[in-house]
Amino acid sequence: MLYALFQYFADSDFPGHHLMDYISFRSGISLAIAMVCALFFGQTIIHRLQKRQIGETVRNLGLEGQMKKTGTPTMGGIIIILSILVPCLLVGNLSNVYMILMLVSTVWMGCIGFLDDYRKLKYHNKEGLKGKYKITGQVGLGLIVGLTMWLSPSVVMRENAEVVNERSNEIEVVHHAQPEKSPQTTIPFVKNHNFNYEWLTGWINDKEAARTLGWIVFVFVVIFVVTAVSNGANLTDGLDGLCAGTSAIIGVALAIMAYLGGNVIYSGYLNIMYIPGSEELVVFAGAFIGALVGFLWYNAFPAQVFMGDTGSLTIGGILAVFAILIRKELLIPLLCLIFFIEDLSVMTQVAYFKYTKARTGNGKRVFKMTPIHHHFQKPAEGSDCLVKFPHNPIPESKIVTRFWIVGILLAALTFVTLKIR
């Protein structure tokens, strides 16, 4: 709204009206507003949740300090969602297709997470929304994002290429003069950073059919990424401040990538594709980071509120869609490695337990407990598992801090991949 108002005064002498033209200014304001909203709304929402007795039901799994969390208000993801939406609606360009997709993703995944938490609280169980309905919602979001990127004329890119300057005989990076519609993405550790999904269907003689199938493959990749990352964030939300802090670090990395990819000069320097209009995502990223940092005020150990699935599913969906829009989805396995390790630990534990039970009649475990962050909380003594390290339990706050440090390292390595070829 404020952005539209300032644009209305663009041709006048209204003081400061040009400030809204700068992405750096609007993203900074967005971050500040989001933090203020989280701090302001947070206490009010927590009181409302306490008044309605919307507290977490905790099972006794033998973890230190676990039962003290019983009754802590959940569904705190509402704080995050509101703190993202308010600054985006105020200073965001609501005619930008990338901003629209991010707002739709936030509300869409927020509704799925809210329904999940609501069912858990209403029926007093840990199951919540059935898995098939969650998957359906995640697939639906993937279809919306993938098809919009395929069909919208506003979602284009300008491919980068290396050329030799005839005068200086030096290699320069140039971008194609005209934007093009192409399902390309950034791929790490190779000479040419771009990977085109149409290459997977290049064996088809009909070029138009091959192009269409290339986009269809891209849509399926979008669905897979959205589902995997949102579920990974959901599993990571198990310790005070773990999911929020880790996601904020990932958000900072993605914001920098969006800024670089939306600037023709910086994208040329890094030899990555230039995506016109994607710089607006930096404004959304500012709101996202500010909301998470503000939420940590109440969610840091010992937590006054849990984000619940309302927050964790929303966060995962946001990170997945954001990475897809800036064509960096193939960097997610490294940038969001913590999420994938959480996912993998659960799948490995279940698969190994079923395998050993089928063979010996007595199921065994790989880890002391999954998701893997709980593995570090349990003592090795008395645990019948393959991985017993560490033998002594680690305090919750130390586990969270170490995961944050690993997240920072992964973000740094992700940027390194842009220059290693």
Task: Return the domain count.
Answer: 1
* Class based on secondary structure composition and strand pairing: mainly alpha
Determine the number of helices (DSSP H or I, runs of at least 4 residues). 14
Q: Beta fraction of the residues? A: under 5%
**What kind of sheet is the major sheet?**
2 strands, antiparallel
Roughly how many Å apart are the termini? 43 Å
Output the strand order for the largest sheet: 1-2
Q: Measured on Cα atoms, how large is the radius of gyration?
A: 23 Å
How would you concisely characterize the structure shown here?
This protein is mainly α and 421 residues long. 58% of the residues lie in helices and 4% in strands. The protein has one domain (26-334).
Keywords:
about 60% helix, globular, two-stranded antiparallel ribbon, 4 strands, single chain, mainly alpha, about 425 residues, 14 helices, two-stranded antiparallel sheet
Written description of the protein model:
With 421 residues, the chain is mostly helical. The chain has helices spanning 2-8, 23-51, 77-91, 97-123, 131-151, 207-236, 242-261, 264-270, 281-299, 308-325, 332-335, 337-360, 372-375, 396-416; strands at residues 160-164, 171-175, 184-186, 194-196. The strands form two sheets. Strands 1-2 form a two-stranded antiparallel sheet. Strand 3 and strand 4 (194-196) form a beta hairpin. The radius of gyration is 23 Å and the shape is globular.
